[in-house]
Amino acid sequence: MSKPPHAPPLVETAGVEKIYAAGSKVAALKGVDLSIARGEFTALAGPSGSGKSTLLNLIGTLDQPTKGTVSYEGRVVSGLSVDSLSDFRLRSLGFVFQSYNLIPVLTAAENVEYPLVLQDVEPGERRRLALDALRLVGLEHFGARRPDLLSGGQQQRVAVARAIVHRPSLVLADEPTANLDSKTGGHLLDLMEELNKEHGITFLFSSHDSAVLERARRVVRLQDGELTADEVRPDRI
Prior knowledge:
By secondary structure, this protein is α/β, with parallel strands linked by helices. It is built from seven helices and ten strands.
């Protein structure tokens, strides 16, 4: 139920559990098996407390499972050292958060460059790549502006450019439209669909926004920490 047909997994979780011990133990995830193929445009859906954000964090290696494994192209990454996980995230994953998470003292171009700075990319090359990424999100003329001079939608586009500038295997987006009005959120989803279809970028969302769920070509639903439904939509492919 959790694997789309004819698609080798880019990322796979096997028997993933997450238990938080804050006074009494709370099982946020209960043995979730899930695989995501390269090129997917998939949403994790469910009410608050369903486990969707926890699962996204485990897939993004921002947290570690209590039990089970997370693998990328057959390589188990859960359980790696802190330094190894940091390097893996830096080179293989992109993140888009609902609160944008831009550095306020940096320009849009400098924010997009930041992952490349961490990778020690040569200054001229990282500026070229950052401007290319801003062009892809329609902000090639806004590179010199700081975040406070950009609208919410523009800031989220900068965040998308930052997420894709290093050509990651997977972009993880946690409630990316939550702080945007419906029109701006729609434009953002248009952009992400284009990046997925035209450039082959894999997207995995965590969202309860109906607009996101309607656009997704696959919706994985969670309830009380368990995977309850997995719908692949041939009409959206």
